[in-house]
Predict the 3D structure of the following.
Amino acid sequence: MILTSTEKIEGYKLQTLGLVQGSTIQSKNMFKDMGSGFKSMVGGELKAYTKMMEEAREVATGRMIEKAEKLGADAIVCVRFNSASVMQGAAEIMTYGTAVKMTQE
């Protein structure tokens, strides 16, 4: 599956199949959250949260790809990511784009 943030894929004509999205809500356990709270007082990267967000993006992207495959897509164009805080220590990641079928120009 080809994923791109652009509207076009050079050398191909694209047939739009529809909007696809995937999302997940992730959180860290209380002890890691406390450790990150202390880290935020002195500054620096919150590695546990960085890892959590990377994992969340992978899960959301995988779910989006599954939906595109069910539509018979070869690619997803205009891919975007969005995140929102759901509650302290938990975040929703959503990825979305347009599923397309590719044919040579």
Q: What stands out?
A: The longest helix spans residues 47-70. Strands lie at 2-3, 12-27, 75-87, 90-104.
